Amino acid sequence: MSNTETARELRASAAAHDQASRDSFERCDTDGFLTQWAHDIGAQRDRLAADIADNGGVWTMPALFNLDGDWVPSKLIDGRYGTCWALVGDDGTFTGEFVSAFPVKAATMARKGFIEGTGTWPAKAVTGGGGTGLAGAANVSVYVVKACDDLTPPVDADPTPTNRKP
């Protein structure tokens, strides 16, 4: 199946979720809010998955590079003091070294020996969030993640610093 056919099917699935949400609202107004919410999240996920399929099954994401421009295996995580890069060793486990992510100035990263650029990887659309019960449901969002492990190099990489002041 081609990416175009996959994208078409995913968009049809998103439209079906949208219709199911509208049908639920027509049947029971806001009493069916959880059903409507679930269909809306499903529609968002399918639309994003269709965009990924249209893009050849890959997506461009932030990536970490050394000062020579070589990609550094790492993963963005929510650390104790905000978002950071967790460096990954040759065996796929975290090395225990963390680098604060996305400083205002590119020079801040350079002093640490790194450059933040972009890389393109096989990707998938997922849902995620935090919390429990209805409060947790309010926290759910749709986003893109790599569809490969953290040791897989990007299919395309650009070590040019992104969105930073010099």
Task: Provide a descriptive summary of the structure in words.
The protein has 166 residues and is an alpha+beta fold. The protein has 2 domains: 52 residues; 101 residues, no CATH class. Helices cover 36% and strands 32% of the residues. It has 4 helices and 7 strands. Strands 1, 5, 6 and 7 form a 4-stranded antiparallel β-sheet that branches. Strand 3 and strand 4 form a beta hairpin. Helix 1 packs antiparallel against helix 2. It is elongated. The mean pLDDT is 87.
Write the layout of secondary structure elements.
Layout lengths: L2 H26 L4 H22 L3 E9 L7 E6 L2 E7 L5 E7 L5 H7 L1 E15 L4 H5 L3 E6 L9 E3 L8
Antiparallel strand pairs: 1-5, 2-3, 3-4, 5-6, 5-7
Give keywords:
alpha+beta; elongated; three-stranded antiparallel sheet; single chain; 166 residues; four-stranded antiparallel sheet
